[in-house]
Specification:
Layout: H1 8-29, E1 32-33, E2 38-39, E3 45-52, E4 55-64, H2 72-79, E5 91-100, E6 103-111, E7 116-117, H3 132-146, H4 157-168, E8 179-182, E9 191-193, E10 197-198, E11 205-208, H5 211-218, H6 224-238, H7 241-259, H8 267-280
Antiparallel strand pairs: 1-3, 2-3, 3-4, 4-6, 5-6, 7-9, 8-11, 9-10
Helix pairs in contact: 4-7, 5-6, 5-7, 7-8
Amino acid sequence: MTAGEGSPEADRRYREWMRELLDRAARRFRVTLDGPAVFGWRDRSLGAPVRAGEHPRWLRVVTEAPRWADGLMWTGNLDANDLEGLAKPRVLDVVEWRDNPARHVRAELMTQLAGTPCSPDPVAGPDLALDEGWWSQLTGFLRDLSCAPTSRVNADQPRVDHRVDAAFGPGVTVAVDRWETVHGDLHWANLHREPFGVLDWEGWGRGPVGTDAATLYLYSLAAPNIAAAVHRHFSDVLDSPTGRTAQLFVTARLLYRATLGDHPQLITPLRARAHSLLVDSGKISPDTRFG
């Protein structure tokens, strides 16, 4: 169970337990907590700045039921060490333990990414301003990442089919014909500036071409000026057939997240964008409604 799935008292106890895990991990790695801790998505993880002697580091703990404490999502940050030359953290050490019969724990000590997040929230705010140098670094980063060889999978055709079917109904099919290496969760809280960098490598791997540009664009729809900036810098991808396919898949994924309570301000613009894409592609008639 994660926070938000029980009573307020259960959520409070769960967060206290996560902080205890972070303290335990700090002792195991012989590092000192050096700033406030930050909970991840649905409180599944908790991270904080630490110091190892004079060296700034980042310490992260994540918990799962034992049956899920394995596979690509479990090892993504460490596997991303294979991606050389990219502005991202590097995992330095890992330790795992079974805290109780119901929960497995993984602690990762990694380098601390310099700079500050572009936003405290995955969804763009209207006041976000980034210079052309930052955008150039982002486009170069995604170009280099897309070519990186890996056997990891972020999304395959069955996963695309599942999400699209759940969001738009069984009459809508989206066939992916081009794949590349993607980050898979490229939103504004995972992007740094001054200097540029990218966080959160749990789910990276092969996915539909355009996944990352589509993700950033769709997370920006509630701030039209930011969405326009993303589109301007990635129009060659977003306006291509493969990029439009990626947008449909990512829209379906974000609409699923919305059913869990995430980012309700995106629901209306996401549905409008999906409707436009589906009508333009001839997959639905203009009077079709979903959601």
